[in-house]
Design a protein that fits this description.
The structure is a single chain. This protein has helices at residues 4-10, 234-307, 317-330, 341-348, and strands at 13-15, 22-23, 35-37, 42-45, 50-56, 62-67, 70-76, 80-83, 88-95, 98-105, 114-119, 127-134, 138-141, 145-148, 154-163, 168-173, 176-177, 183-189, 195-203, 209-216, 224-232. By secondary structure, the chain is an alpha+beta fold. The chain crosses the membrane at residues 249-273.
Length: 374
């Protein structure tokens, strides 16, 4: 029977006896159980399992697993594992004098990332590791095939969305890595703590080739990839040359037609202006003719009014002199006209024409023209 004092010096506290203490007699003086191999860091993809091992020497009594400082699973040497949640389970292995407890975290989430600790309730006997949960996002190139022609420089965009952390992107052509100076990668934050990346490759193909965009994070066993096939078509160059020639001819024809249209428009405008001027000139001439005709008409009317109608009582001077000269001597004095009716009758015996009234007036040797206004 061990005494209490030597037991305190040589043993390791493992439980309680009737007096509240129980001592490990198997180890003897200077020996105790310990963690011989603690857990190691792990990086896993979200949704997968994470596993951590903790190996202790013989004589252990209790082993506790903690996640970010909180207990998640307990293993007792006498009862086995005490699981409180389905996401944290364990498997136990015994090899010789050593015991190994394997912690299994199911359906890992980004929130599980942090410190994972194995404790046997011994001072300085806590071993820990770190868990990193990463997210594998999507990777795509919009066009799966591209047709290129000679001396054509193109840009190919590879887009990575919803990654954690942001992926490392590289390019390959026909299984050969492309120099990093040929592409540019930009990263940007996404939603829910995720990251996006956009990589743009610029190159001038010389032959048909397959380009591959690779996105890699530590948790991936192999990089995720997206490919695009570049088809180098020489006939496209010839077709482009033909199209360029056709386009050139179309441009030339359009320019010529435009020039001809402008010339035709100018000719039409000049013709219209000349017609308008000619019409105005003819109108002016017509007006002048009309005015001249009116003036002529007015002149004829004035002459007609001045000349009057023919005076039937007019007798030419010659006849006047021959006819009237002998009668001048035989005419009685003016007062004899009123002397008697016989003279009156003699005077009225002249033919009944209006010019006969000339005998009633004093005859003058001057030429007289009577004008009758109509």
């Amino acid at each position: 029977m061990w005494s209490r004092a030597p037991a305190i010096l040589a043993g390791v506290l493992t439980g309680s006896d009737r007096n509240g203490l129980q001592w490990d007699e198997e180890k003897g003086l200077g020996f105790c159980y310990s963690i011989t191999k603690g857990p190691e860091n792990a990086t896993v993809l979200a949704g997968s399992q994470a596993r951590f091992n903790c190996t202790v020497s013989a004589g252990w009594k209790v082993l506790i697993w903690l996640s970010k400082g909180s207990p998640v699973l307990t293993v007792l040497s006498s009862q086995g594992s005490v699981e409180t949640t389905e996401r944290f389970t364990s498997q136990n292995y015994t090899s010789g004098d050593e015991f190994t407890s394997e912690l299994i975290i199911h359906n890992t989430q980004m929130s599980d990332s942090g410190r994972i600790e194995c404790s046997i309730q011994q001072p300085s006997e806590n071993n820990f590791a770190f868990l990193s949960v990463q997210v594998n996002g999507s990777l795509l190139i919009k066009n799966s095939t591209l047709t290129v022609r000679e001396n054509q420089t193109i840009e190919i965009v590879c887009e990575a969305l919803g990654w954690a952390p942001a992926p490392d992107i590289t390019w390959m052509t026909n299984d050969s890595l492309i120099d990093k100076s040929s592409y540019v990668t930009q990263q940007s934050p996404g939603s829910h703590g995720l990251h996006n990346a956009l990589s743009t490759l610029t190159l001038t193909p010389t032959d048909t080739e397959v380009l591959t965009c690779l996105a890699d994070i530590e948790a991936l066993p192999s990089p995720q990839n997206a490919t695009v096939t570049l088809i180098f078509d020489k006939s496209a160059t010839e077709n482009d040359y033909s199209e360029d020639n056709r386009s050139t001819w179309v441009i030339v024809l359009a320019v010529v037609l435009s020039f001809l249209g402008i010339v035709l428009l100018i000719v039409i405008i000049v013709f219209a202006v000349r017609c308008c001027l000619k019409r105005r000139g003819s109108t002016y001439e017509n007006e002048v003719r009309k005015v001249s005709a009116e003036k002529k008409k007015d002149g004829d009317l004035e002459n007609r009014q001045r000349n009057g109608s023919e005076n039937l009582g007019y007798i030419p001077e010659e006849l006047w002199n021959t006819e009237q000269s002998p009668r001048l001597a035989s005419l009685p004095p003016m007062f004899s006209k009123f002397a008697g009716p016989d003279d009156d009758l003699h005077i009225t015996s002249v033919p009944k024409v209006r010019p006969q009234r000339r005998t009633d007036y004093l005859i003058s040797p001057k030429k007289i023209r009577n004008v009758t206004l109509v």
